[in-house]
Amino acid sequence: MGKSVSVIGGDLRIIYLVEMLAKDGFNVYTYGLEKAEKLQNINNVFNCKNIEECIKKSKLVISSIPLCKDENLIKSPFSNKDILIKDVTKCLENKIFIAGSIPQDLYNLQQETNFEIIDLIKCEELAILNSISTAEGTIQIAMEETDFTLHGSNILILGFGRIGKVLSKMLNSIGANVYCEARKSEDLAWIETYGYNPVPLSKLNDSLSDKNIIINTIPSLILDENRLKLIKKDSLIIDLASKPGGVDFEIAKNLGIKVIWALALPGKVAPFSAGECIKQTIYNEIKDKKIF
Amino acid sequence: MGKSVSVIGGDLRIIYLVEMLAKDGFNVYTYGLEKAEKLQNINNVFNCKNIEECIKKSKLVISSIPLCKDENLIKSPFSNKDILIKDVTKCLENKIFIAGSIPQDLYNLQQETNFEIIDLIKCEELAILNSISTAEGTIQIAMEETDFTLHGSNILILGFGRIGKVLSKMLNSIGANVYCEARKSEDLAWIETYGYNPVPLSKLNDSLSDKNIIINTIPSLILDENRLKLIKKDSLIIDLASKPGGVDFEIAKNLGIKVIWALALPGKVAPFSAGECIKQTIYNEIKDKKIF
Amino acid sequence: MGKSVSVIGGDLRIIYLVEMLAKDGFNVYTYGLEKAEKLQNINNVFNCKNIEECIKKSKLVISSIPLCKDENLIKSPFSNKDILIKDVTKCLENKIFIAGSIPQDLYNLQQETNFEIIDLIKCEELAILNSISTAEGTIQIAMEETDFTLHGSNILILGFGRIGKVLSKMLNSIGANVYCEARKSEDLAWIETYGYNPVPLSKLNDSLSDKNIIINTIPSLILDENRLKLIKKDSLIIDLASKPGGVDFEIAKNLGIKVIWALALPGKVAPFSAGECIKQTIYNEIKDKKIF
Amino acid sequence: MGKSVSVIGGDLRIIYLVEMLAKDGFNVYTYGLEKAEKLQNINNVFNCKNIEECIKKSKLVISSIPLCKDENLIKSPFSNKDILIKDVTKCLENKIFIAGSIPQDLYNLQQETNFEIIDLIKCEELAILNSISTAEGTIQIAMEETDFTLHGSNILILGFGRIGKVLSKMLNSIGANVYCEARKSEDLAWIETYGYNPVPLSKLNDSLSDKNIIINTIPSLILDENRLKLIKKDSLIIDLASKPGGVDFEIAKNLGIKVIWALALPGKVAPFSAGECIKQTIYNEIKDKKIF
User: Fold this and answer.
1) Report field, pTM of the whole predicted structure over 0.90
2) Strand locations in chain A, DSSP E?
3) In chain C, what residues touch A284 (CB-CB under 8 Å)?
4) Which of A146, A148, A270 shows the shortest C-beta gap to B149?
């Protein structure tokens, strides 16, 4: 079968990924990317007539992150075709299927049709690498939406997970006064160790009034009405938490506090790097499988 | 005369400055800022009928940076009136006149009309503080104009003056591979000491081909045709050098290299902080004069 | 009973702790610290005649870290007395007993004699805070044992746990070229994210030959004969791993490679800070118990 | 004459320099280094019988930094011989003579005997590179002489010259709270820009009482009796200023404040790196002379 990969659907990150895989010497067989101009003049990237032909070319089948547009269709913004999930799955026998947020019913299919699933959204490595793009995207938004410099401003980060760690490091080194909220005493010890200002959840309310920017990474309603009322009107809130988000947007609006809800930043602010991260993660995930 | 300041013309930075001076307890008498809404409801900011009335209120007279719109007029974007420089100067007796890029003929006037001039553009302190906004503005542009993260990218900075120093520090700490070009062996020693990659001018040409972003701070044509031809087509060039700039824009365009010519960033990306810097500089400039 | 604490035995860190607790307003009742001069003139520190008297004064009983000198005795370098563990435990009814590396049989005693145990060595918070002192102590040793600057030198850190994280951050910011070895792809992703050079275990051998300093934090024999033979004779190895250590010391010696085995650094290089960390951890551990 | 260098006298840094020059392919002819064991088995390092023979071998003649032991003799700790300065100068015709702190009378000699002088102590590049070793040496001393971690401690640096700049960067990134004293408003603006706490000389006295470590780089008596009385008894003072130093040592002693007067650190803490810096500086100094 040679050194080949099949790719079905996906957004700009996947297009960069295809370009990189081709550059690394793979023959890349694509379906559902026909509108991606930059792929059209690459010798070892092939546009397949149909799903079956595309998939049978390779052991490895890569698809969209997230996989689904809706319960039936695969996300494929660079295609005019509707790509049915079931049309893909029925060809997956003995394949390794790599995509993001893969729904449970595909896992159920693994028994009958024998194939392997790698869900990139579950890969810690990718999540960490993506936090760089997310952090930079957040900094870009903070710069665009304020009339002051980050240097010398008071910035509070809610949550000290992956994004909190990367963001606090970058903001601190730009010269901001960085405050990090966390629940666990371990996280607070890390915040202290890294030289930021630790804010235990119990003291959060006392810490809201003098912040110029507040960035939330916690996927639950932490900035509720009571807390929003403690925040300066001219503060900027950036919410990085996936739906339903961590801010009561309605209340914030009524209070006249600007809130930017920024989701899926890696694909938006740095699709090339996002593609690189996906590539690196896939290489690490398959390196023990000796398929090439 | 009490604790008062007169302000004539100026852009958004001056409006923020007026707001801060008022907050610090000064009575601020303004002329040529009547379109600045945010000043209209501040108790101790007064909109004067004419220049003479405005100036006679204070020992300190602050005007635009730069002072001149053309050889006759003062820059006053927040006014519909034409403010003649000579109408201001004729009232300056015994005053301290603070503005930016003040033309020579005002210095000549000092003899006859007895007044003192402080040109903010000549204040090293302000130039240093402004380099923070310039650096952050440059980072914002770099983030907006690229599809990759600054983290992990190769960035070359031409010139290791004030802006080069601040910019290299910030970019390095975000995770970029920072290269700094300089002529003097002292500067190259500093670049090494700070942990960046020193690029002597003599080796510049060998260092151009693998850079993702090149930022120029040198006010002379350093990126000429020969050098531009050594740069990757998909590199981004940001030129921070004042007119005529350091890049042959015509050639770059023909070569298909994207160049952003970014001037006067502080006032654009962080007018509030720019106002703060101006305030701090003025306070330091006058602190020995015991006028308040 | 008032705001009081009982302290039995312990080293210099405990003496600093007692001093700080007294400063914070506690009456501190001590036994087995009679040789600590700096405690003798503090008003609210009391030297007790015997264990029973000492313990009954407080709800909180703090002892040595580690607790035991041998299976029978409590570690008490600042006392001439032998302090039997069983003489302490028999008085612990209804007390909270705080010490380090507390042996299992004390846990077994909890049923009959009703008391609570807090083992500080099991507190993640303390371990993190201690990693600062360990990192600084390691840097001090590296500076003392070499004739070159850390700035510009190649330093490899084995293991990316707590100490690896803090140490790499400090060394990197001093200007060293920092390489970090790790097994897990997540850790390698973090190393990349923080801007150090990731070294997968599989590639460790290729990375040994050009390092000036190698610091081990892994508690298993990672630097065996094969690997030691790949290291430059004039390299410095610092082993931070507790017994049996991560280096074949015999072989290293024969090869003429200098190895420093540095254990328990916090108490040695920064006993004051170590005491502070213990205090902060104890305060956090008991804050929900409402005993004061 | 081939690629050769002559070296006369000098300390451990010069010995490392000779080793490096030999490694770079120079034939190195030495006089007054006969006790340096590590040079004895290097093929292209030659121990000369007398000064004249040594010097005539090369265009380039390198000697001690500083040059003089007293008004007549060259500093040569690795020799049992007395090396008279005049015995060297009389052979220097048409040579380039490189050493440190070269006395005026040698400059006067240049007319009659025609030779060129390069005083390394006057080379800004070397001074900058040496500030790295000085900064690391200072950090080592601070770690050795305190029982607390630099992380989290309050450190005041007097003077923001070369050493102040490098030291504040390193200490800040280790996690200390860094305060920098300076006179000029430009320097204070830089201190602010780099994210440290600026202390104008006029406010120095208010800033002394809460510092754990005070490091002086100013070559004049700044810590006099009045200021020393404002410093905590348990503070550590490190004076890096060359004789007569910046501290009233007598008063400090009476007040019971520990003062370490640390001079010529590069040669002591990192002679290898010091040798490297000397080499790099010499290479840059002669590169335009086309002598090799």
Assistant:
1) yes
2) 4-8, 27-31, 45-47, 60-63, 96-99, 116-119, 154-158, 177-182, 197-200, 213-216, 236-239, 258-261
3) 185
4) A270
